[in-house]
């Protein structure tokens, strides 16, 4: 039996990798993938906790988080497409019309 | 046995997650992310959440990632757009921030769990079956379920509105 | 276990259902109406808001609960529903002429506003973190789409992209925070959390650390959504780039919804941890008002100025979290109602000054001399600016006064002194707007703008509301005081 703490550590590592990716990458699509990584890390933690507590509600929460993530992907990629169509770029730093 | 699975899957997950953020080519990143999502699905199975493991593969590794790859292909990026990674300062800040975050989490879990006898309180017999999940979803979680449907509708309307070319 | 449809008290979510139905109808109309008939979509939208408002009115004071406690209608929820519906109503009125000017009259625009309102009502009228999260996502996703509504405008694209990336990042933190709280307590229900917290210390030593981490992550997630410093980066850009009615919308409804959720989470569920999180809110409050006010001093764009002013106002409202107690909560409710009026009014003036070819610039110099040419706009802009900076006898002064005095009563004099100094700094940039409108000579010969009826109505109602509540605050104060949880 694997202790919960291992799962939490693993999910913490994945979450941190996601945060790191969000901050260092400039390509919008990869930045967005990092967010997906963060959400998945959270899902893993929820399932591990749910198993530890022996409650089913955690799985429902994960189910709903997946729905939200899917909705976000749909809208997010459309926004990226729109940005690319006008700007011909997917670099975050090219969003520089407005500053301060 | 379970432990071996856990170690293997978590190693794959961490390595492929690192690949996601370190590859220069977004297609490679997307493929690595599929591997990560797949190994997380494997971990779900180890945790006996069977239904969610399959949802994870079908919805996430399947539909969502296909969408990502589709968009990357549509954008037909030239080589030099793959990733001009500048901004040294920001990168250093990011690494420090994430390291700090990780250490903090490590300490928290350390304090919380290690050295304490830790056992699973109990696992219901139907843990992870679609029946149990469905029953919960249509009783206690009926309202969130309905809200989720509106959320998906909004996403659909929004995606069509934003991605459609102006006539 | 079994839950038949008859057991559900549908009355509790009737306002939400109304909004959803009208949203669906608008989507269908957008698909099937010929282009020249689409003007009615806006009118259908505000009718939906009014109907939903009537159902809310019917619910006031009922204290019902439905869906196993996931939806409830306590006075707190209904008060916030009023705020959201009123702000959406004004935003729809603003949009009527804005969309006509843009030649972009569309049903899905109004449908998204209705859905966003639905999400806000859900956030305020629940005791479950999961529903709060889903409501927040409905609001956020609708707003990502709406801020990119001017599809060919680069600034609008950029605003949408930045808003979306920051929002998704915040969602990650929020979900992880909920995960840790769920893990340490086994529930996401705020009332159960409140009951369980004293028990956990005895049964599971050490689990608190997870709980602390979860609370921290929740603060980060909500910090992004209400745009408090240091999580505010997206807000000025979104305000500048997004269509003006949407910027007004973001500053009013979603922000209040974020505060509604924060109030329930921190002053109800985690109230026993107050000594631990109070310092965080103290710092957030001081950072928000100071940074917001100082950066606002340099702005040359009116929408950006209002964004930084909005960040500063978040700082003032956060004082109430530090102070705590019933008078602080009712102070927040009062403040938010007044803030919504001031901001929506100011934005209505910005919209009436704009035109299709110079949409999204809103530079100060375009306002030079405008107050003399359009005395109606000038006088009301002066009222809104004075109220935002907190001059008596406007309601903005009283709003600040109630929050500050609740903090003084709880013994946070230092914080109040910082806030008062900040208010004095803010007078400089608010007055600059008035100076531009009345005292600077116009650069070119400007003609008086013609104000559409709907915009004039918004300006008139909000302006009179501010003056009326500034002189006779008692009815609103009583309502706010009866609406705390």
Helix fraction of chain A, binned, reads: over 70%
User: What is the structural class of chain B?
Assistant: mainly alpha
Number of strands of chain B: 0
How many DSSP helices of chain B? 6
Mean pLDDT of chain B: 82
State the distance separating the first and last CA atoms of chain B.
60 Å
State the major sheet of chain A: none
Major sheet of chain B: none
Which fold does the CATH topology of chain A refer to? Helix Hairpins
The oligomeric state is heterotrimer
Q: What CATH architecture of the largest domain in chain B do you see?
A: Up-down Bundle
Order of helices and strands of chain A: HHH
What top-tier CATH class of the largest domain in chain B fits best? Answer: Mainly Alpha
- Share in helix of chain B: over 70%
What shape does the CA trace of chain A take? elongated
Portion of residues in beta strands of chain B equals under 5%
Give me the CATH superfamily of the largest domain in chain B. NADH-ubiquinone/plastoquinone oxidoreductase chain 6, subunit NuoJ
- For the record, what CATH class of chain A applies? Mainly Alpha
Total number of distinct structural domains of chain B: 2
Would you mind describing this structure in some detail?
The complex is a heterotrimer of chains A (100), B (167) and C (485). Chain A is mostly helical and 100 residues long. Chain A is built from 3 helices and no strands. Chain A has one domain: Helix Hairpins (Orthogonal Bundle). Chain A has helices at residues 4-24, 28-53, 57-87. In chain A, helix 1 (4-24) packs antiparallel against helix 2 and helix 2 packs antiparallel against helix 3 (57-87). Chain A is elongated, with a radius of gyration of 17 Å. By secondary structure, chain B is mainly alpha-helical. Chain B has 2 domains: 2-128, NADH-ubiquinone/plastoquinone oxidoreductase chain 6, subunit NuoJ (Four Helix Bundle (Hemerythrin (Met), subunit A), Up-down Bundle), CATH 1.20.120; 129-167. Helix content of chain B is 74%, strand content 0%. In chain B, helix 1 (2-22) packs antiparallel against helix 2 and helix 2 runs antiparallel to helix 3. The longest helix of chain B is centred in the middle third of the chain and has 26 residues, at 50-75. In chain C, helix 13 packs across helix 19 (474-482) and helix 16 (395-409) runs antiparallel to helix 17. The chains are: A mainly alpha (100), B mainly alpha (167), C mainly alpha (485). Chains A and B meet through helix 1, helix 2 and helix 3 of A and helix 1, helix 2, helix 3, helix 4 and helix 5 of B.
């Amino acid at each position: 039996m694997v202790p919960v703490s291992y799962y939490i550590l693993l999910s913490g590592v994945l979450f941190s990798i996601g945060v790191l990716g969000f901050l260092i990458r400039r390509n919008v699509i990869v930045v967005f993938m990092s967010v997906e990584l963060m959400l998945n890390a959270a899902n893993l933690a929820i399932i591990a906790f749910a198993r530890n507590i022996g409650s089913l509600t955690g799985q429902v929460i994960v189910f709903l988080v997946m729905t939200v993530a899917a909705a976000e992907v749909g809208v997010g990629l459309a926004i990226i497409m729109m940005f690319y169509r006008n700007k011909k770029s997917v670099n975050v730093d090219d969003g520089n019309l407005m500053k301060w | 046995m379970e432990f071996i699975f856990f170690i293997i899957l978590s190693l794959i997950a961490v390595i492929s997650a690192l690949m996601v953020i370190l590859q220069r080519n977004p297609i490679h990143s997307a493929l690595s992310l599929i591997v990560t999502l797949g190994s997380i699905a494997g971990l779900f199975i180890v945790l006996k959440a069977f239904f969610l493991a399959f949802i994870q593969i079908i919805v996430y590794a399947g539909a969502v990632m296909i969408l990502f790859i589709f968009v990357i292909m549509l954008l037909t990026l030239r080589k030099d757009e793959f990733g001009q990674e500048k901004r040294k300062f920001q990168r250093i800040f990011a690494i420090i921030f994430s390291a700090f975050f990780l250490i903090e989490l490590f300490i928290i879990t350390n304090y919380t769990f290690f050295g304490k006898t830790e056992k699973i309180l109990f696992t219901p017999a139907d843990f992870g079956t679609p029946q149990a999940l469905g029953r919960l979803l249509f009783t206690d979680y009926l309202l969130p379920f309905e809200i989720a449907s509106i959320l998906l509708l909004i996403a659909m309307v929004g995606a069509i509105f934003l991605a459609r070319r102006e006539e | 276990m079994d839950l038949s449809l008859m057991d559900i008290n549908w009355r509790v979510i009737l306002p939400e259902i109304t909004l959803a139905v009208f949203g669906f109808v608008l989507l269908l109309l957008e698909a099937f109406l010929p282009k020249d008939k689409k003007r009615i979509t806006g009118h259908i939208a505000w009718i939906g808001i009014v109907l939903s408002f009537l159902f809310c009115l019917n619910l006031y004071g009922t204290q019902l609960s439905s869906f196993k406690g996931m939806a409830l209608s306590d006075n707190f929820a209904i008060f916030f529903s009023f705020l959201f519906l009123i702000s959406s109503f004004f935003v729809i009125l603003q949009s009527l002429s804005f969309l006509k000017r843009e030649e972009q009259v569309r049903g899905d625009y109004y449908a998204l506003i209705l859905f966003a309102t639905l999400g806000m009502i859900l956030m305020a009228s629940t005791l479950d973190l999961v529903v709060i999260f889903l409501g927040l996502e409905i609001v956020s996703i609708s707003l990502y789409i709406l801020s990119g509504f001017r599809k060919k405008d680069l600034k609008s694209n950029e605003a949408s992209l930045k808003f979306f990336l920051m929002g998704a990042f915040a969602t990650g933190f929020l979900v992880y925070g909920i995960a840790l709280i769920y893990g340490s307590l086994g529930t996401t229900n705020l009332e159960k959390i409140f009951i369980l917290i004293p028990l956990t210390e005895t049964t599971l030593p050490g689990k608190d650390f997870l709980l602390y981490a979860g609370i921290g992550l929740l603060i980060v997630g909500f910090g992004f959504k209400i745009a408090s410093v240091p999580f505010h980066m997206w807000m000025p850009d979104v305000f500048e780039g997004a269509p003006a009615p949407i910027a007004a919308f973001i500053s009013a409804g979603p922000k209040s919804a974020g505060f509604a959720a924060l109030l329930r989470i921190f002053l109800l569920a985690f109230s026993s941890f107050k000594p631990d999180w109070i310092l965080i809110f103290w710092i957030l409050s001081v950072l928000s008002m100071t940074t917001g006010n100082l950066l606002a001093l340099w702005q040359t764009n009116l929408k950006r100025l209002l964004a930084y002013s909005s960040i500063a106002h978040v700082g003032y409202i956060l004082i109430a979290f530090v102070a705590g107690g019933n008078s602080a909560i009712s102070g927040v409710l009062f403040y938010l109602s007044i803030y919504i009026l001031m901001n929506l009014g100011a934005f209505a003036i910005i919209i009436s000054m704009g035109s299709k070819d110079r949409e999204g610039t809103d530079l100060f110099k375009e306002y030079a001399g405008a107050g003399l040419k359009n005395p109606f706009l000038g006088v009301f802009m002066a009222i809104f600016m004075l109220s935002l900076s907190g001059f008596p006898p406007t309601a903005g002064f009283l709003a600040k006064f109630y929050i500050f005095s609740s903090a003084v009563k709880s013994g946070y004099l230092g914080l109040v002194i910082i806030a008062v100094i900040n208010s004095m700094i803010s007078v400089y940039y608010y007055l600059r707007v008035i100076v531009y409108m009345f005292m600077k000579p116009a650069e070119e010969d400007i003609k008086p703008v013609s104000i559409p009826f709907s915009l004039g109505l918004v300006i008139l109602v909000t302006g009179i509301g501010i003056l009326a509540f500034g002189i006779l605050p008692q009815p609103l104060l009583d309502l706010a005081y009866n609406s705390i949880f």
